[in-house]
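Hi team,

Filling in the usual template for the complex we talked about on Friday. All components are listed, including any nucleic acid strands or ligand strings, so the model treats them as one assembly.

SUBMITTER: L.P.
PURPOSE: interface mapping
COMPONENTS: two
RESIDUES: 670
SEQUENCES:
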Amino acid sequence: MSDGSKEGKVQLLQGNEALAEGAIAAGCRFFAGYPITPASEIAEHMALRLPALGGTFIQMEDEIASMGAVIGASLAGLKAMTATSGPGFSLMQENIGFACMAETPCVVVDVMRGGPSTGLPTLASQGDVMQARWGTHGDHPVIVLAVSSVRDCFEIAVFAFNLAEKYRVPVIILSDEVVAHTRETFVLPRRGEIEVVDRLKPTVPPEWYRPYEDTGTGVPPMAAFGDGYRHHVTGLTHDERGFPTQRSDEIDALMRRLFRKITQGFHEIQRVEGFMIEDAEIAVIAYGSVARSARRAVVEAREHGVKAGLLQLITLFPFPRRHVEKVLRQCRAVLVPEMNIGQISREVKRVHRDSSRVESLNRVDGRLITPGEISDCLIRMYY
Amino acid sequence: MAEGMTGLVHKYLRHEKKFPHIWCPGCGNGIVLGSLIRAVDRLGLDKNRVALVSGIGCSGRMTTYADFNTLHTPHGRALTYATGLKLSREDLTVIVIMGDGDATAIGGNHYIHAARRNVDMTAIIVNNQVYGMTGGQYSPTTPYGARTTTTPYGMVEHAFDISALAVAADASYVARCTVYHAALLDQLIESAIRKRGFSSVEVLSNCHTQFGRRNRMASPVKMLEWFKENAVRMHATSKMKPEELEGKFIIGVLADSERPSYNEEYEKVRERAKGNGVPKPPVRCEG
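RESULT (copied from the run log):
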């Protein structure tokens, strides 16, 4: 009998399928979603694969409900995920905020398409970067990761679940239409080759359990409903026991802990990948499908004598400031190509202290930025 | 250990810090909570295996006071969280408390789909016909003509019949009661929890503070009298003409049927996916 897994075998997969496989490898056993282009294949793949693994797939009545069910499943102890695109992602924001406040681990995939509104369902965009950062109301940190290839989709899905479980936060994966629907060959790693992190559970007797207690890491152990640790979970600002509070000392402690737990983990949360960056004098900072164009563009630019390099951002938020600053100090010019009018370029400009020139290259016509466009830019900026 | 209701209070309510509660004196929420606790006790459920999920509003605070696994969700979304819980931990008895705004306005879509999907859980809707916590604005169940802070010239929309919605959406068990009929309410909640599949109990409750005060029923007693005088038992309705039922509340069991819950259906899906020879359901798409 097979559970449908094709571990260790070469596969021709599209980004969406690889993302679903990555989630399953990370231990995801619950998926709730609502059909939307260009994310639907993730749901379809989960509907096919989860039941044989004893997991649950459910198609809910909308994206609000999907996100609610995901949080419910996570509170019951399962690793849970949903996937959508821009319009659905907007609907999910309220419940994503709940997951932040109640510290419920889960993974939310936004396969970006053109917007605003119904926009361009079948064409690519990177317009949701700031929605991922600031989509919910209230003040809280957030983890946002970007994928650029089929391999990334698998690996970043695992990484996202590990971060969600370790830090008790919703983790957002930004994919885009190009990555989602590109098919590439890929060898699915075997189970033992993947590092999987599970949430910390309480070890104290139930009467001692304080579900939102401050700990050294800022991440309290999490009991599942039904484990015998009866406790209260609310979206209201709460004290260490989870009960609503209006006491300023308790409010302040909670809010600061929510930030601190992420700040303390910067070293492992902020992931970037350098390509020919060591000796670069001019750099591209890119993410998502554009990072692949950039990789090619760097090679082309080098052929023209331009000492170019690429800093690919895998973690968009918390913004990998230290990595970006290093590149800004090292290079005399930095190019930020994006399929929006400038969302990450604004972040780059925010952290740079006039040490180098920062330029942006933007496309908002639903088409991927080509390697040629980026290398032309690099050559012009270099000479 | 104290006996009777006091004993139950000690057993099922959280005593440290969370009292006094936020409800107005005479509020119907306390009666609903009392019935819920008595039903759970009579069923002999283990507190560790009960999940109580609520939405936003006065009724939403019930989860803070009751000593179960409790979850206080955003406005209208309680049923979606409860769906995730129940599908992930079958051993939990999932009970959802909502207000009329929760269940029929902001969460109306979730309510009809939860009923249709037939996930094994119990929804208790405390219908006080008004948004009480936010200051007495009209809700989808405010009666025609009623005065609220957002209908200063009288309500001109027609009210939703919550239980009729659940019946139409094919919920396995649908009942209605009022907080005046507390003994009946105990029984209905007990039967609803026992029911496999989705069960819905609508409870007409008094908000004399926000609704009664503006509609000539400024005390709990007046509102309870209104429930008493206008409630008609389900079995008595067959002898009554439609015009006699105008403005009445039909109480009792409105629907009770057997069909496999979503949980049972999904278990078959798992078996099919594993290739264990469970046949797929027949395709039924004849026009």
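MY TAKE: The longest strand of chain B covers residues 249-256. Residues 29-43 of chain B form the longest helix (15 residues).

Thanks, L.
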